[in-house]
Amino acid sequence: MGSMHDIGDISLPPGAWDSHVHIVDEDVFPLHPSHPYRPKKADLDDLLVFHRNLGISHRCLVAFSVYHTDNSSILDGLRRLGGRARAVVCIDADTINDRELRELHDAGARAIRLNLKTRGQRLDRAGYEELLWKNAKRIAPLGWAIQLYVSLDQVALLAGVVPGLGVPVIIDHIGHPDPATGPVQLQEGYREFMDLLRLGQVWTKLSGTYRFENLIGLDDYVREILSIAPDRVVWASDWPHSGGVAANPGGDRDIPQEYRKIDDRAWVARCMAWCCEVEGGSGQKLIRKIWVDNARRLWQYDSDD
Q1: Is the peptide bond before 240 cis (omega within 30 degrees of 0)?
Q2: 85/21 Cα distance (integer angstroms)
Q3: How far apart are CA 125 and CA 138, in angstroms?
Q4: Does the pTM of the predicted model rise above 0.85?
Q5: Where does residue 28 fall: left (phi above 0), alpha (psi -120 to 50 degrees), or beta otherwise?
Q6: Measured between alpha carbons, how far apart are the two ends of the chain, in Å?
Q7: Which regions span the lipid bilayer (predicted)?
Q8: CA 114, CA 133: separation in Å to the nearest integer?
Q9: Residue 87 and which of 47, 204, 273, 298 are 20 to 30 A apart at CA?
Q10: Which residues touch 251 (CB under 8 Å, ≥6 apart)?
């Protein structure tokens, strides 16, 4: 294994997963009328080309905020992938019925996503408790997880309710710390997030760090997460790298938005380097965990391939 900047040879283990990707094709699956931005087409065919180039065998399709609770594109993708994928869907816990949940489960859904960050939603402690309990009750019979996209400081508000929910909880993008508020180790929510990881009460995705690339202490933060929770981290590309609401051209949510230009091979190499630094040597045991073994457990995938 070369240095963090030597990315000529990145060889992922057989059966590698990408645990966080989105697909969108508004010509086939129209966006929700109140979509927060308009991403350009990035469909399943594009995703499969991307994954072939990286050596990814399996993927988890994650609900795109532009579709709200319409999971049609994900269901179509899962059908086309023939059982070799999983999905995180978006539901309305108040209106979805058991038959609809079972249909999503049979197709490959294994979690729901609560995306508060994209829309800038911030709840108080009671609000998080109500939201998490309401959703946990609907998905617990299926054994699904709740995936949360919030900022790191919000983890401090929801940490108390997580252990009692009775369902797995996943924190997106290693908690999404805020580079504007100084070193991550001094930020609100950092201690609570580390405690939840240390006690095995949450999972997290090693993904999306380009959203906070100038964060002070990022390398130490990732190494700490990998050290204290090696069995609770899954790797993800966050493809196709949407810019989100902040990148709306001229503030207009209806102008098609370009995707961020991300060097994904360099991202893989950087994550491998972190694994080497934490484990020592080639880092292959930890690499296999976050790309293969942990993902298979989290997404309840027990096929032989």
Answers
A1: yes
A2: 11
A3: 21
A4: yes
A5: alpha
A6: 26
A7: none
A8: 12
A9: 273
A10: none
